[in-house]
Target: Thioredoxin domain-containing protein
Amino acid sequence: MTATDKLRIEGRLPELGGATAWLHSGPLTPAGLRGKVVIVQFCTFSCINWLRTLPHVKAWDRKYRDDGLVVIGVHSPEFPFEHDLEKIRSALEPMGVDYPVAVDNEFAVWRAFDNAYWPALYFIDPEGRIRHHHFGEEDYERSERVIQRLLTEAGSADVDEDLVSVEPDGVYLAADWGTLGSPETYVGYARATGFASPAGLARDRSRVYVEPSRLQLNHWALAGDWTVGEQITTLNEPGGRIVHRFHGRDLNLVLGSRAGGGPTGFRVLLDGEPPDGARGLDIDERGNGTVGEERLYQLIRQDAPIMERTFEITFLDAGAQAYVFTFG
Model:
């Protein structure tokens, strides 16, 4: 942004009292934050779109904290396991999130902002006025320029106008937007699209599924004995599979296991073969992996040329649970 760009007033920082808990801080309030530049980011720890923004947000926090910036995360859970305070804590700690996080299990803060997105950034000036917002990923340069502008307006002297240097890797690496041809794909019936097993999904009851002989792009199927729930699809007998025809550099899948079931082994194939050099962080070259904690698992990261591929995951144990495919 340029010096002549205007930042209009979009509203005021609402009360944050609806948070059910706070991490790394006591409860924060608009009154207590007066005089500070604040950015509020809505997140949920299994969300790939949020994960890819995290290196930038952490870098802003480190660079501008001493200039008067306060970063606040608002963790509004998408899936049931993301309500658990200890799971939130254990997920965020290794990510290096040490700024205040409001645990928003009742979506009270979400509603107070009238928010609708993961991730979403709101930029608040020292008078408590919302001056800018951004939904989704990218636009990092403009976001940082807004921070610099608000800090300067607040009287911070000698704000460094250089932009942070961020070199993310792993799940934090930005999507390859130019080759990405597959959308987020939920496997619970509430938001399922592209399901291709014959006879469709049976809601909330056990069914033995078979996969079609051929999958079209962005279609997926089950094989084996599964129960498809509103958000969670659970394997009832060992050996069940999920197959997906996709187009993208990365394939991720949010996975867990039934309570008390323990770790669940799985094997991934790409076009019927072990993924080898196309493996993601959570499998070996032969495609073997284990579901432990509930989280996003990076299963495929392939080099160019990027083309349509068929992904297959077979679970060796009953109790495996799947939530959503994401791509990058």
In short: The longest helix spans residues 140-153. The chain has a mean pLDDT of 96. Residues 185-327 form a domain with the Jelly Rolls fold (CATH 2.60.120.260).
